[in-house]
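> tool_call: predict_assembly(chains=two)
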Amino acid sequence: MSSVPASAFLALALILFCIGLYGALTKRNTVIVLISIELMLNAVNINLVTFSKYGLNPSITGQVFTLFAMAVGAAEAAVGLAILMSVYRNKKTVHIDEMDEMKN
Amino acid sequence: MTFSGEFFASMVLALVAIIGGVLLLNLNKVVHMVVALIFTFVSIAGIYILLSAEFVAAVQVLIYSGAVTIIMLFGIMLTKPYDESEEPTGKWRKIILAIGIVGFAFAVYLGIYNFDIPQVQTVLHENNTMQIGKAIYSKFIIPFEFVSVLLLVALIGAIVLAKREDKEGEKE
């Protein structure tokens, strides 16, 4: 039995998710936007692990799903960085408001 | 709620994680933001240990505070964010976004603040890695293979996207 309530971990995950959401929507540098998305993924992973311990029927499944989410997140970071490199080579900018080739 | 060591550790880890996130939003230099986020990732690993997920904590330290942070630092250093000026799209957008996100947080918090279901004694902390291995290689074998295909596709895709495309220009 644990002395920390499950809602504490859920609240931590909520705060981290909101920080990541705010960063992803306001920051101008594309790398920071990508890393904010990673922060949101981490918040979701905290939720999964919390419910794998404190859920109605606790099991290892939540932790396995966390591992899968981490694999997907790492792949997403690598592909996002590659796209950023490609854009930077063609446009010489990393600012997300100047990447508007698909606008017109 | 008693003030046990577990309570204290979880509060300290949560505080460090949130401070890292706030520093990510407020620091000026991009490299400093990424370094601030390392604190968040490491303390999230500590949170995983408190939630009896040791293997996930080790993977968190290896993948996030190791690989993802380094790849982001490489991304920053290879792209030279020379112009660190303030965002031209005024303050009103930020304020409206902040209000919306606070509203979202409040709505979710209403759902979780008195989340209370009976705790069941778990055996997640005994041979944690062995349990995960058994689950992956028996119950989740198909998703596991799909993850390997996904990583292969991401690897090839990243190489193809980041490769220089001026080979024809050099020959002429």
